[in-house]
Amino acid sequence: MKFPLYLALGVLLGLPTTCQTANAKDISFMELCKFSMDFAKLENNRDPYYPYADPGANGPETWDKEVAANFDLDLIRYGDYALTWDNTVHTETTNRQFRQVGWKFEVAAHLGSRFKLYYRHHSQHLMDADGQGLRYPLYNAVGAQIVFYNRSDR
């Protein structure tokens, strides 16, 4: 967890040096870049952390729908240099109730248009179930991305 903190501090401290000759209008802070909602009907979803189907009085419980909120923020941006935070909060339901909620995010330092350093997180949590004694899925990664080709008109 220390690396993302150092990454953020490095970009925030280094960006003003890069931007010394910039006008104030060229630098943006805390700008919402995208907000969207996803609505999906789940087909063939089987969750190993929630493997059982409750037969219940209304028939078997099956996975049904997914809803997700996506929002991307530029924490600070100057041209191709930026510190960004992209988020997705998602939930999956069965035909009876909400069963799972998760959060996926990426904090990234964009150092030009072809290189970025990032920290990625994805966690999912069961609701109203113990997951048969299994741990909740969790993913954390620190990495770098080099862009070799990017068609900008999509």
Structure overview:
Strands 1-2-3-4-5-6 form a six-stranded antiparallel β-sheet, with helices on one face. The two termini are 34 Å apart. The longest helix has 17 residues, at 2-18. Strand 2 (63-78) and strand 3 (81-94) form a beta hairpin. It has one helix at residues 2-18, and strands spanning 27-41, 63-78, 81-94, 98-111, 115-126, 138-146. Residues 15-20 have low confidence and may be disordered. The radius of gyration is 20 Å and the shape is elongated. Helices cover 11% and strands 52% of the residues. It has 154 residues and is mainly beta. The chain has one helix and six strands, in the order H-E-E-E-E-E-E. It has one domain.
Determine the N-to-C terminus distance. 34 Å
The total domain count is 1
Shape: elongated
Structural class: mainly beta
Helix share, percent: 10-25%
Name the strands of the widest sheet in spatial order.
1-2-3-4-5-6
Question: Strand tally, please?
Answer: 6
Order of helices and strands: HEEEEEE
Strand percentage lies at over 45%
CA-atom Rg in angstroms = 20 Å
Main β sheet profile = 6 strands, antiparallel
Number of helices: 1
Q: Which residues sit in consecutive blocks of at least 5 with pLDDT less than 50?
A: 15-20
Mean pLDDT figure = 79
What's the short version?
The protein is mainly β. It has one helix at residues 2-18; strands at residues 27-41, 63-78, 81-94, 98-111, 115-126, 138-146.
